[in-house]
Design a protein that fits this description.
The protein is an all-alpha fold. It contains seven helices and no strands. The radius of gyration is 19 Å and the shape is elongated. The termini are far apart.
Length: about 140
């Protein structure tokens, strides 16, 4: 039984040590903030960050406003899931040069459009108030070319 506890303790120590090192090296605490510069910690996000800085949304929205759902728990669950998968793909190098939004994150972004632009979309035809419809025509708004 003691050998088993030693193995578990060593494994837990390795996981915590590697996890702690990775969290510090990847500036993990910065992702707990609303600072858009945190998104540019990974070099593949630099172009998206620069494009957001040049967009009209810069003065009214930060990354979390469009890319995380409202509500504390939902926001941090999304950030944790995205953070894990971003770390995984960037560590393995298994990501496309042109980063693609996932269907779930696309829904989050579309819902954010509807929330902020609700007075405008309410006055439009019913087809403009369904999730995803904004991004069909306005997919590059937050990160213009």
């Amino acid at each position: 039984m003691t050998k088993w506890l030693v193995v578990v303790a060593v494994f837990a120590g390795l996981v915590m040590g590697i996890g702690g090192y990775t969290f510090i090296y990847a500036k993990g605490a910065s992702y707990l903030t609303n600072d858009p510069a945190a998104c540019a910690n990974c070099h593949v996000m630099n172009d998206y960050y620069v494009k957001w800085q040049r967009s009209s949304h810069r003065s009214v929205a930060v990354c979390n406003d469009c890319h995380t759902p409202t509500g504390f728990l939902q926001k941090y669950m999304t950030k944790a899931s995205n953070g894990f998968w971003h770390s995984f793909y960037f560590t393995t190098g298994n990501f496309p040069d042109n980063i693609q939004i996932t269907p779930g994150n696309r829904t989050v972004a579309a819902d954010a459009c509807l929330k902020c632009h609700e007075p405008l979309t309410r006055s439009m035809s019913p087809g403009h108030d369904t999730p995803g419809s904004c991004l069909k025509c306005h997919g590059k708004i937050g990160h213009p070319q």
